[in-house]
Amino acid sequence: KYATNLVTLSADHTGLHGSLPAELGCLRRLSFLHLQRNNLTGTVPQRAMDGLVDIYSLRLSYNKLSGSVPHFDDRHSNLQIIHLDHNKFDGTFGEQLSEFANSQRYTGIVAEVMLGHNNLNGPLPHVFYNLLNNAFRITGLDAGGNHFVCNKETNDWPAWVFRTGSSYFGQCIPVATPTHFSNISVDGGGIPERISTVQLRESESSHIYMIAGSELVIHGENFEASAELKCRFDQDRQVLALYQSREQIVCRLPQDLEVGKAYDFSVANYGFDYWSAETSNNFVPVKVLVVAKANTGDDDSLPSWAVALIVIACVFAIGTTVFAAFLIMKELKGEPLFMRMEERGDVTQNPMVAKIWELEAAL
Q: Are 32 and 7 in contact (CB under 8 A)?
């Protein structure tokens, strides 16, 4: 609150860490916010951006900022430079720059949007076309190194990209496309291990009969070795997938799926770019029907070998206890089981033993 007249805040490469405070929005006269090449984390608070009504240059590149890209609207009419590249921004993108694109009214000055090398996904937003083709077009754009999904008609960028230049965007990500499945049920619970294959057929829905808790092997094409690679069972059940190759991944069904229920199945490489009728011309509806639950060993039952070991241990413990009690009883009666030979009444009848005693006495 003591720096409300601040115009420039520049602290590039100074070792800053932590998150951006929402109170930045109090700097209503701030025109230059340059915090590149630090260790900033967290999101860019929308409240902070809404308050920066005089911002001209926003440079936050090379940090670890995440979440959604903030919105820039008609309150940011002076904004010309947006550098948010080399961070971890994710999610779909487009509306955030709609007003910014419409507000470009100057020619002959630098106007840049740098969003490359983040985790943005979804279709390539048409706002980029507006930024590159408006009467007051921007002078610099970079959106490469993200995960924008390919157009389903061409399995490449939309046609307008090739009219403006694909170098701004790098390569698109093809939709993960299953072609057939192998389901491997886990051992246990009296359910034998079995392997079956379901081949998808064009224009036909398919049912896959599975056991909750078992592994589903998905064969196909365009799978990415992504930390976001996942399978979905209906809209609200997502599990991370194990990447094995561009043609094969493995997903384990949640153990708590309801037996007898059929779940809509899909896969995605990034974000919510799931294989569907909206993203692929080769989409075939797939339902996973749960027929049983696997015995994962989480119940109270024990395997037979463990039960046998417990029985043997119990028998040994009982036998040891009985034998110890027998020894104690003999001692109490004055009839110990183990005694020196000279204490036994019949030992002197043995000449050999008597001779040994005489030698021991002489020593």
A: yes
d(CA 245, CA 228): 15
**Sequence-distant (≥ 6) Cβ neighbours of residue 148 within 8 angstroms:** 120, 121, 122, 123, 124, 169, 172, 173
Q: What is the DSSP letter of 355?
A: H
β-strands 140-142, 88-91 pairing: unpaired
Residue 318 CA to its chain's centroid (Å): 52
Rounded to two decimals, what is the model's pTM? 0.73
C-alpha to C-alpha distance for 137 and 168, rounded to whole angstroms: 14
The number of beta carbons lying within 10 Å of the beta carbon of residue 312 is 10
Do 247 and 284 contact (CB within 8 A), yes or no? no
Q: What is the DSSP letter of 340?
A: -
pLDDT tens digit sequence for 203-227:
456 788 888 888 899 999 999 999 9
The pairs formed by 224-229 with CB atoms below 8 angstroms and a separation of 24 or more are 224/173, 224/176, 224/269, 224/270, 226/147, 226/269, 226/270, 228/119, 228/268, 228/269, 228/270, 228/271, 229/176, 229/267, 229/268, 229/269
DSSP code per residue over 144-190: -SSEEEPBTTTTBS-HHHHHH-GGGT--PBPPPEEEEEEEEPPSBTT
The answer to whether 29 and 53 have CB atoms below 8 angstroms apart is no
Per-residue pLDDT at 306: 67
- Tracing tokens 């926003």 back to the chain, one arrives at 58
Burial class from Cβ neighbours inside 10 Å (0-12, 13-18, 19+) for residue 259 reads exposed
- Tokens 């005089």 found at: 54
Residue linked to tokens 């949007």? 113
Helices (H), ranges, the chain? 46-51, 98-102, 127-133, 159-164, 304-332, 351-362
> By CB neighbour count within 10 A (0-12 exposed, 13-18 middle, 19+ buried), where does 151 fall?
middle
Q: What is the DSSP letter of 24?
A: G
Instruction: Give the residue ranges of DSSP H helices in 206-347.
Output: 304-332
Low-confidence ranges of the chain (pLDDT < 70): 1-2, 103-108, 135-136, 183-205, 295-306, 330-363
